[in-house]
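ok trying again, last paste got cut off:
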Amino acid sequence: MPADLHIHTTYSDGSDSPQKVVERAVAQGLDAIAITDHDTVSGVPAALEAARDLPLVVVPGVEINTDYMGREIHILGYFINIKDPTLIHRLGLLATARDERVSRIVGRLGSLGVHIELDTIRFKKAGTLGRPHVAEALRSAGVVSTIQEAFDRFIGRGRPAYVPRSWYTPGEAVTMVLEAGGIPVMAHPGPADADRMIPKLAESGLKGIEVFHPEHSQPDIDHYLQLCQRYGLIATGGSDYHGHRYRSQLGQSTVSKTVVDQLRRLSL
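nice, full thing came through this time. structure:
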C-alpha cells in the first residue's frame, strides 16, 4: 500500500489541481498522499474534499523553504493544523515575500530587455508565487524553450535576474511545524547538502528525513537510512511531484502506509 508524501499542486508550483492529483493518485493505486505545497496550505482543503468518498488518505502538509548559509533547505510538515492562526500568519509573510521577490525578478528581467507581464503571472495563480512561474512566463513568451533554460540563463542562483529571498531558518521552520501540531521532516537532504544540520535539528524536534526521493541514489538512500537509525528519525519519501513542470512522476518514490501511521501517531 504505497504512500507518496511529497506532492505539489497549482497552489504553489505544480501544474495539477488538488482534485487532479487525487484523481491521478487513485488511478495509480496509491493508498495515501501528502499535499506539500511551498509555503502554503491553501490546496489541502480541496484535496481532502476530493478524496472524501475515495479509498485514499490525504495527509495535510506543507513544504517550508528555508535558508542556511546561502543554501536552500526545505522542511516538510505533516498532519499540521491547517487552520492554526500563527501558522497562517507566518506562511502569509512568506507569501508576501515571494510576491515581492517575483516583482523584483520581473524588474531585473526588464532591465535586461526581457519584458513579461507581472499581472499576468499573478492572475494565473491560486496560491504562492515563485521562480517557476516566472520561468513558465518566459517560456510562454518564447524567450526560452524550456523551464530549465529560464533558470540557466536568467533566474537561477548567480544568473543576471536572480533575486535572493528572505526565509526562515531550518530551525524556525521545525518550530513552526511543531507549534502547528505537525511533524517536521527534512526534505531531500542529498541535493541540499544538508547533512551537517541534521544532528542540531534532531535536537530541536525534527522527526524524520525524506530518504526516498527521485534525486537520491541508492548510496544516498543507504546513508540516510543510517542517519535515521542513528538519530531516531522516521524515514519518509515522496516523488516531489510537480506535474509537467518537472521530470518526477506521481508515485515515483513512495513509502509504506505504515510510515503514514507512524507520523499520525506522533501528531496525536
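cool. The chain has two domains: 2-90+170-267, 100-155. The mean pLDDT is 92.
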